[in-house]
Amino acid sequence: MDCDINRVPTIGLMSRVMHMSMEQIRVLFEQYDLKPGQAGILFMLDHKGEMSQREMAALMSVTPPSITTAIQKMEKLGFIKRRLDDKDQRIMRLSLEEKGRKCVKYTKEVAMKMDEILFRDMSQEEIMLFRRLLLQMQKNLKVADDSPT
């Protein structure tokens, strides 16, 4: 049974687009045995440099335990390394290995390919407006998270 697309709530459309795009990304990352979230970890380390797991979790808006498994798998695969912090031995510092650096290049290529797919037949103005609206939605959600219930 088909539904009237004009009656689907915006959150439903966003969810559907995200699901479809994540499936495309999953296929593109298979050759590196990476999951999209793991690619995000590589990208953050490339962009920000060495950091703790807690800092990584905060940047990705997740809890530190929720990325532990991904980090452990990525370390076993040789994408990243963990070492004890020089000043505080309770903190593990994350950094890219050479294999991770090479994969970051591919990650950026995948992101550009996804932009090509997602923004096909859209003007530069439409793309800029869409990005601005997404940033505003992110800000709105952050404010909603910070406000008492």
| CATH fold-level assignment of the largest domain | Arc Repressor Mutant, subunit A
CATH architecture of the largest domain: Orthogonal Bundle
Q: Give the averaged pLDDT, no decimals.
A: 89
Strand content: 5-15%
User: What's the gyration radius in Å?
Assistant: 18 Å
Description:
- The longest helix has 23 residues, at 124-146.
- Strand 2 (80-84) and strand 3 form a beta hairpin.
- This protein is mainly α and 149 residues long.
- It contains six helices and three strands.
- The radius of gyration is 18 Å and the shape is globular.
- The chain has helices at residues 10-29, 36-48, 53-59, 64-76, 98-118, 124-146, and strands spanning 51-52, 80-84, 92-96.
- The chain folds into two domains: 5-118, Arc Repressor Mutant, subunit A (Orthogonal Bundle), CATH 1.10.10.10; 121-149.
- 11% of the residues are buried.
- Helix 1 (10-29) packs across helix 5 (98-118).
